[in-house]
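Quick one, probably user error.
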């Protein structure tokens, strides 16, 4: 028998590429919802659909209260304040949230729904950090709607963070970094890549802090980059000092700008002046040529921190340079400065025969 396809009629159907039964129904307001039942058993799917229909019927009661749906929440929240800064990460998280919550009346959202989502994502192989970011997006959006839009909805996603393993610390030696930069200089379609890597290694800035950097926030006389609150993950302003290597990388970008796009406001721009939005593909290509494995763009920031701590810079100063919100985030690099701890325990030898 042929498999049912997507339909405009209420009922169950199966989508190509999905093993689950999908449901579609229309509530009394005329709003149509399509949603995965997350089950391959037809009878179970019919029972789930019946429950959703009853829920939708109850949601449009005699009081005529508006139905606040997950779809409406995400559509508005992802276009709201600070959306541009977090767009890539949040869009990725929302992509996983939608199949589980699309069409859902938020007034009926329960802790069991969030627990079920977490269990399903873990069964699919998602890591705790990934799931936490997804649940965190849902919680933040719900809180924002409650606070800013006066939506009378619960937030069962609050406080449901999973325990995450200790943060990854992958960094390069100076020799490996030199090889990576040389490989980046040979990247045929990414003339900016070597300068991007140099700046990341010598400022500790995050990827988007650099790719969204405007020339108006670069002061070569004072040798500083200015990052306002809206440009940083921690939403705190910070100034980033520039060493000689970082200044040379910026001088290279200035030469490119003068030759191709003198009116562009962006430090990392295409020849037409538009902003370079991503460099992951060319970065991974350079890593492969340099025979550097298991290394991501964010690890350039780890490398900067590792070099600083290994060179004896106090953790508090590393925290301030990198813009960590707490010293705890910086302490993941403490093991790279064993001399600091050795000097501390040496005090215990005083007066010992």
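Nope, works fine. Designed sequence:
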């Amino acid at each position: 028998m042929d498999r049912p396809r997507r339909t405009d009629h209420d009922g169950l159907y199966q989508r190509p590429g999905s093993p689950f039964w999908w449901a579609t129904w229309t509530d009394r307001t005329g709003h149509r919802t399509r949603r995965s039942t997350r089950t391959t058993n037809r009878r179970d799917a019919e029972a789930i659909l019946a429950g959703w229909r009853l829920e939708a019927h109850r949601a449009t009661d005699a009081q005529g209260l508006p139905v606040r749906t997950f779809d409406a929440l995400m559509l508005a929240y992802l276009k709201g304040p600070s959306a541009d800064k977090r767009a890539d990460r949040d869009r990725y998280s929302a992509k996983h949230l939608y199949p589980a919550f699309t069409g859902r009346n938020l007034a009926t959202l329960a802790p069991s729904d969030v627990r079920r989502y977490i269990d399903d994502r873990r069964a699919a192989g998602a890591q705790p950090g990934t799931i936490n970011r997804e649940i965190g997006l849902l919680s933040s959006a719900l809180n924002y709607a409650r606070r800013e839009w006066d939506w009378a909805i619960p937030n069962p996603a609050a406080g449901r963070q999973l325990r995450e393993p200790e943060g990854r610390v992958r960094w390069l030696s100076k020799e490996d970094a030199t090889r990576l930069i040389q490989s980046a200089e040979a990247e045929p379609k990414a003339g900016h890549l070597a300068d991007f890597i140099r700046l990341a290694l010598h400022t500790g800035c995050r990827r988007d802090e650099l790719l969204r950097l405007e020339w108006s926030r670069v002061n070569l006389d004072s040798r500083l980059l200015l990052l306002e609150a809206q440009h940083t993950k921690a939403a705190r302003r910070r100034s980033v000092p520039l060493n000689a290597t970082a200044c040379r990388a910026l001088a290279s970008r200035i030469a490119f700008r003068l030759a191709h796009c003198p009116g562009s406001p962006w430090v990392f721009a295409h020849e037409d002046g538009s902003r370079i939005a991503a460099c992951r593909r060319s970065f991974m290509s350079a890593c492969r040529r340099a025979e550097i494995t298991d290394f991501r763009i964010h690890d350039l920031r780890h490398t900067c921190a590792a070099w600083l701590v290994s060179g004896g810079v106090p953790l508090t100063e590393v925290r301030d340079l990198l813009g960590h919100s707490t010293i705890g985030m910086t302490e993941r690099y403490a093991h790279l400065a064993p001399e600091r701890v050795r000097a501390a325990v040496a005090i215990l030898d005083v007066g010992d025969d």
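Residues 260 and 271 are 5 Å apart (CA to CA).
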